[in-house]
Specification:
By secondary structure, this protein is mainly α. The protein starts with a helix and ends in a 13-residue tail after the last helix.
Amino acid sequence: MDGKARKWFKGLPNNTIPSWEEMECLFIQKWGEKRNHGYSLTKFNAIKKKSDETVVEFVKRFNKLYNSFPVEIKPLPAGAKITFAGDFESNFGFTLREIRSPTLDQIQTNALEIEANLVAAGKAPETAYLRQGKGKDGILSKSSIG
């Protein structure tokens, strides 16, 4: 960083930004292009998992968009959870909604587990992302994939 951006960054109080994602969001809010938030909300409400996209890839794309909203217009977590569950093809989304996860993080973890179960049953191909996401015990976890 140079110039005003560097001065802004150095002026941030120590230990106030707990993650890289929050740093990225703050930086974009301060220095990124100014967006039409109505367009961003429309894009968020229309987001769908692509057929050639793994759940891991989709979770990352979903969270990047969700975390890019300024606090004042960010969809509530309950609404984000509903949007997330509706972003999958019908059978997958139905299974995900039936679990009734209490949080966005939990519904995303459940989506990873459903995909892993489909792979284990031979109903979906195993991807490099799934193999990388498994811990030493062979169990897939959201935290092991970022």
